[in-house]
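Dock 2-acetamido-2-deoxy-beta-D-glucopyranose; give full complex structure.
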Amino acid sequence: MKELLLVLLLVTEAYCRSHSSWCQSGCQCRGDLKFTVCSRGLFSRLPGRVPPNTELLDLSDNHISVIPERSFGRNRKLRFLLLQNNNVSVVEDGGFSQMEFLQKLDLSRNRISALTEGFSVGLAFLRELQLAHNLLARLDSRSFLHLDGLQRLNLSSNAIHSIQVRSFSPMSSLRQLHLRDNRLTSLRSGTFSMLRSLEVLDLAGNQISDMQTSVFKPLTSMTLLNLADNRMTTVHFKTFLSIHTYSTHILLEENPWNCDCDLQRVFRKLRSIQRLFLDDYYNLTCREPEALGDYRLTDVDTELCLAETVTVLVITGTVLVTVLAAMLMGEKRRKKEKKRKHWTQQGAQSDESDS
Ligand SMILES: *[C@@H]1O[C@H](CO)[C@@H](O)[C@H](O)[C@H]1NC(C)=O
Ligand SMILES: *[C@@H]1O[C@H](CO)[C@@H](O)[C@H](O)[C@H]1NC(C)=O
Ligand SMILES: *[C@@H]1O[C@H](CO)[C@@H](O)[C@H](O)[C@H]1NC(C)=O
């Protein structure tokens, strides 16, 4: 009996030791589910012991600030890596290398201010990258270099004000690009080149006032373009005409529209294009001219060109009247002249007969 107990004790201890040696304290390891959850574990560094068969590693809500090179070399089976709400400011080159099964990486709510080429090394199969609420200010052609398979990229709520042409072009499979709540002021042609699979482009909440006319042209799969809450006062017909898709919904509300006859004409033409849907057209409000401030565009749009028409009519009328008057005056003068000549001739004749 004693021996049996001893054996049992030894077995349990061995089991516990082997188990704990692969599960860092502060984490919960669910080997059966291949989950390792180290959320809210007060970690300031990556935990050293994560079971090698882990497919989902949740490290959210900690204080991790550095991702050293090849951090996950022993966890090659990872498919989901959650690092949101940490203090990550440095991802060393190759920090995520050798993760050929990783599908989703969540780095939102950290302090990342730059994406170097080394950041994306080894992430060729990543499908979703969450980078919202970081400190990114500019993107360049190396920022996403190795992300060939990425389908969803969330860059919302950063401080992005500059995007180099071809920054996004390595991601030819990208389907959703979220750039909401950044500091973009203009969009240059070439910014979205190569994004032939892109379906959703969210640019709401920026300061965009200026777009080159062919900027959206390469986006032949785009179904949703959100430009709400920007600084657009007017829009060029060609910019949207160049969108060659089957059907695209465009959102434009909360922009400071300058409601003049040109704007009305552009919108009239845009709304007649079958493949474009201006979903919030009835919500567009005017900022300029001052007299129309806060009016809805739809409430005044019939009058915008009317005023112009009236002005044209008035001018035409005035010109006509002036011309007519001039003609009449001329005619009158000619008649008078004729009469005067007639009289003078008669006078001369009578003079002659008198003498
Ligand atoms: C976050 O990281 C910075 C250095 O980048 C460090 O100074 C700060 O103490 C860290 N904060 C926490 C809560 O760990
Ligand atoms: C992008 O990130 C923000 C903030 O984390 C989140 O609220 C939003 O749902 C994300 N959008 C997508 C499409 O993933
Ligand atoms: C228009 O604005 C109203 C109120 O602000 C909102 O409820 C509605 O969803 C908007 N419509 C569209 C198409 O965005």
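Observed: The CA atoms of residues 132 and 155 lie 5 Å apart.
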